[in-house]
Amino acid sequence: MQTVEDYLSFLHTKGFKLSEEAQGFIMFGQGYTGASDGIVNVAIEATIKHQLQFDGSYFVALLERLKEEEITDKKSAKAFMQKLQA
After folding, report:
1. N or C: which terminus of the chain carries fewer CB neighbours within 10 A?
2. Which InterPro entries does this one have (predicted)?
3. What is the CB-side half-sphere exposure of residue 80 using CA atoms within 13 A?
4. pLDDT digits (tens, 9 = 90+) for 15-74
5. CA distance 56 to 62
6. 35-38, Cβ contacts within 8 angstroms, sequence gap of 24 or more
7. Where are the domains of the chain?
8. DSSP strand E in the chain: where?
């Protein structure tokens, strides 16, 4: 599984540089919800795709929703995100 730090480094190599504030939101959201790295990475990706930039409040709300839905693995999280888009 790719760690959050590895995923952020990957985004950086693709030209998507997150601010320290955004990285703080990510760490806060992960700690607040107890989400795994895989779930956090899916939420980061979905936030960027849906908002066209990183929006910290959207990201935290998304993590909270995943927790409410009791989604604990990356595959289920991706399926849930696709369901939200439909």
Report:
1. C
2. DUF6123
3. 19
4. 999 999 999 999 999 999 999 999 999 999 999 998 999 999 999 999 999 999 999 898
5. 10
6. 35/63, 35/66, 35/67, 36/1, 36/72, 36/73, 37/1, 37/2, 37/3, 37/4, 37/7, 38/1, 38/2, 38/73, 38/74, 38/77
7. 4-85
8. none
